[in-house]
Design a protein that fits this description.
Chains A, B: Keywords: DNA-binding. Two copies of one chain form a homodimer. Chain A is an all-alpha fold. Chains A and B meet through helix 1, helix 6, helix 7, helix 8 and helix 9 of A and helix 1, helix 6, helix 7, helix 8 and helix 9 of B.
């Protein structure tokens, strides 16, 4: 029953936003009686805070599952970035976004959301370092991994105002090329990559 | 009076979020009678949609003013990125974020916010290209400028859950170094830059 309530809360956050998510709608959606729901979660904030935890577990599990399907070889960085880009453009991101924005002006919610968000952030960072095979002891590499995650967060936000998938792919493919070069792996791609640019700009 | 109402709406979006911004609070804050306010803006959405326009003008004006103060020379890229980073971490960004997220689940608001956001996005892109002196006819450069703007948007979002200025500066300084290299300007900085990394990674 708890799981049904959590899923219903996340679905409603995605479909109606934080303001449109009411305890009545959650109990209807979950098929749980008002009495039973109120016994477990007396207030909307109790429900939403529990859903935050549920949501971060789900985000971690989704990412780990996607990571299993990544290719190795020269296309790996691009595949890692596209995976991250898709993750931050998913409904789960929209639900998290609703909570972040609501928490910005709600101290009680912020107290629950901020530490969980830090935890998720650290886990996603660790996973990204591992998937990219990045060596953070090299100066600047840690910042570029962080930049990559802030980039996909920004792309996720842009995507909420309208489907942005083609633009996202172009940007992430170019970022992958730069990242491979910076991580000490050359990845010129005919027609779009560094090789062609070097021809045009011999001063480099 | 209109300007006072717009400013009050933006302030309340920053302080209390979209859900906490009511027409009553706006009229109190602006020192405008309920009657006069309702005459100009019969509903909350009328008020908020007008404030979106006001806000995008203000965002453009703030950026243009900051751009006037940028240095020339080797530190310019870093200064441009820090300026953009600060802009996307400002209260004006928080107000815009409230509108974006509310618009995600409110079709009437989305119809007003999406075209304005596209307009602002194009203007900021154009300004960034100009400030960086980037040549978008070179393959990949347009995507790197877009990535830069999605990066600062992501950093702005991260900043709403807690002040993130030191992390933001480290990330943007590193990105400035990479961007200068990609744009055909070398910018090694002792101790943190490409020069040191090249020593550690002779294969590059």
């Amino acid at each position: 029953m708890r799981s049904r309530l959590m899923e219903a809360t996340v679905e409603l956050l995605v479909e109606r936003g934080f303001g449109g998510t009411t305890t009545t709608l959650v109990s209807e959606r979950a098929g749980v009686s008002r009495g039973a729901q109120l016994h477990h979660f007396p207030t909307k904030n109790d429900l939403v805070v529990a859903a935050v935890t549920h949501l971060s577990d789900r985000r971690g599990a989704e990412l780990a599952a996607s990571a299993q399907r990544l290719p190795t070889g020269p296309d790996r960085t691009r595949a890692v970035l596209r995976m991250l880009g898709d993750h931050f453009a998913s409904p789960v991101f929209s639900a998290a976004l609703e909570l972040w924005v609501a928490a910005r002006t709600d101290p009680a919610l912020l107290a629950a959301v901020a530490p969980l968000e830090q935890h998720v952030g650290r886990e996603v960072h660790r996973l990204t370092v591992e998937l990219l095979g990045a060596d953070e002891s090299v100066p600047g590499v840690r910042e570029l991994v962080q930049a990559t995650l802030d980039l996909v967060r920004g792309l996720g936000l842009a995507n909420t105002l309208g489907d942005d998938a083609p633009r996202r792919s172009r940007i992430l493919d170019e970022w992958a090329r730069v990242l491979d070069a910076e991580l000490g792996r050359s990845a010129p791609r005919p027609g779009t990559g560094r090789a062609e640019r070097d021809e045009k700009e011999p001063s480099r």
